[in-house]
């Protein structure tokens, strides 16, 4: 009976709301399907007309080009797939370090903008207004020009520390050709120890009210890696860079392109993060600070234990959007010659002509990276919200 009555309502024509809803959805679906079919047919026809082959088999061919900055072994004889992997790692390094550095700088500037000091507050406000109102691309050009035009050549490069040189070609530093696995394992062990300490300190805080200390986390996180580096330094010879007339021989290199991109992205996004955190802190009622002061808490403890946990509930959603913007803005690296994923993808397109496949790979990678950041921030937002409800 119910099905028959629903059929009678649909048969009522366009004047019936149920019929209009179903008909509208069907027409939109048909229109979208028609557009996709039209584009697909034209794409196939254009590819056949120009004799452009399709498929992903080109990924296993030799790339035939070098990459200036690579965190894994790579040469011109490596495959296009490995070239894309190098670009992905280069992009991830900039995105992860940029998020960390912009958060640190943004937190400092955001707190400073609320300072009562007559010098600190105007400086923080000036920094925010200056940096966020200048286009990011222009800032990248400025930093790249500073690093490549204002620094000395290799023959006159200053030695900042033993084996550490800063020149137009970049930052040259000593490296170890073995032991990376030991350092990586030490980092994992340190991270596990730091997480265990965080869980223990929270349980202790719930039982006794004693605040968790910050310095044990840093010691547990970085201590094993530092110890591994010291052990390797004592037992393994370093490859130290040596300045020559035309450059440096040996050692490791952080290119000016990577440095300019990292500085530009970090400072630009830190200005927005500072405003987000300032707004979050100001959203917390003044009575919270007064109550903390009446309990004898210092201003630093009040900020860390009372204000920031409540401010984060407001700040985390816009912070997630800012982190997504930073990750996507890494594609501007092509403007200053840093070999990120987009830059290497363009090179592969120029060599193979298979733009559809390469663009599909790039879209999938950036989509996955953005969804991963979004998922992590959603998890953290839920965690902060749960803590705030206790």
From TrEMBL:
GO terms for molecular function: transmembrane transporter activity. It is found in: Cell inner membrane; Cell membrane. The keyword Transmembrane helix applies. GO terms for biological process: amino acid transport. Pfam families: BPD_transp_1. Keywords: Amino-acid transport, Cell membrane, Membrane, Transmembrane, Transmembrane helix, Transport. Residues 88-377 form the ABC transmembrane type-1 domain. The keyword Cell membrane applies. The chain crosses the membrane at residues 22-44, 56-76, 88-115, 136-155, 175-200, 212-238, 258-277, 358-380. It is a multi-pass membrane protein. GO terms for cellular component: ATP-binding cassette (ABC) transporter complex. Its main location: membrane. Belongs to the binding-protein-dependent transport system permease family. HisMQ subfamily. NCBIfam families: HEQRo_perm_3TM. This is ABC transporter permease subunit. It comes from Aminobacter carboxidus.
